[in-house]
Amino acid sequence: MKWVDKASWQLKTLGQRALDTQLSLGVTGLSGAGKTAFLTSALQQLLQHDNQSMPFFSVMQQKRWLGARIDARQALHFPRFPYEQNLLYLKLTEPQWPPSTVGWSQLSLTLRYQSASTVRRLLSDYQQLSLQLLDYPGEWLLDLPMLQQSYSQWCEHCWALFRQPHRQAVAASFREQLHQVDLTQTDPLSVQQLCAQYRDLLQAFSQTAGAYLNQPGRLLVPAELEGTPVLQLLPLLPEQLAQGGALVTLMEQQYQNYLKLVVKPFYQQFFSGLDRQLVLVDILGALNAGEAALSELKQSILLILQSFNYGPNHWLRRVFKPRISKVLFAVSKADHVTPDQHQALSLLLQQLVAEQLSQSQYQLCQFEVMVLAAVRASDAGSIEHQGQQQPCLRATKRGQTLPVAFFPGEVPGYWPDHQLFSAHHFAFSELSPAPWDGQSALPHIRMDHALEFLLGDKLG
Ligand code: GDP
């Protein structure tokens, strides 16, 4: 090797080392918000070679994209995101949605691209970004406010929620059960049984349209904590706390244990490792579920936002060292409505997020709100109705076998109030995925915008 070549090779190697970067992207959202669909689509868009499908992802649009691959060596002790299996569901002759997120999982990949900077291109033929994608339930973020509540405040909060119209009937038998409990008794079997009943109640809530705010999040989605005694926790009735007794004392201790052994470690060991965060929100599902559901969704989003609201003097900084610099709140499943409704959908979430952000003094994160569909299941078009062109969708509605053209309904321009809910019932249809050849880029709406916001600056 001539010295010039050698020097340039060494320079390139050095440059390569210096320019290699790492990024952890968290993907969250409440159950059913679209995390699995998003990650599957994002991975497929990055791993396939059709740059045409991502016109607003600058590294692809500027033809600097060299490709991506899943790292052969994944962390052996971490659950792996089942990307390959998920594709199999979408590839079926009658395509199905892949199974939703339960617990957390991750996948690491290496992205290779050419730098946008001429100087960097001289130093190195390509740059690499090691990207770690982490999928975890948004329910775990809903535990955050518990850190600032006492056990009795938490019980008050839970039972106020369980009195809401869409929850009352579901909670009735557990409430009755609690009334029968002897508060002086803490024998292990009856405590275990009572906690199992509370867990069943949380499961029932998670199947109830619009019941989003389920605490403790780990009881509902325990992951590796399944079966551990730290999850033996339930909210006793507020009137029982005044009576006192061994069971009250035990639950107060269990509450503190849960905060110390579950909530704090989650923030310290998991959340603090994230650089970027996507929060998916299914607004259309909440509109379908009605007024109480929508109000609970709003409450949940505001609670989730609190996890990113850490300024220099914020109490959260004492719990963990956050480093998230960008947060994207995205309304998922935009393909359920016609494109002319996307702006209204985005405005709903924007109003909510912006209102909250304007109230907090210190923001270290950059926030963005957008509307997307990870896997577009509909084609937008128009039909003539009473002499006028009207926007419509063509898709296979869930449970049906053939695609139909239909008008999916309008998204309100403001958060609907009681009056609107009494006069109107929202009914946005769920859709089956469209047939897919397994090769071409999965159809989507604004996945390129989302990846540009979340990764674009790291691929410059
Ligand atoms: P997770 O619980 O957050 O992992 O949610 P999933 O990703 O499993 O999504 C839940 C359901 O929402 C899926 O089974 C689909 O029915 C629907 N869904 C998710 N993403 C999309 C999308 O981009 N388009 C459409 N039409 N439906 C979606």
TrEMBL record:
Top-level taxon in the UniProt lineage: Bacteria
InterPro entries: YcjX-like
Pfam families according to UniProt: DUF463
Protein name: YcjX family protein
Native organism taxonomy: Bacteria, Pseudomonadati, Pseudomonadota, Gammaproteobacteria, Chromatiales
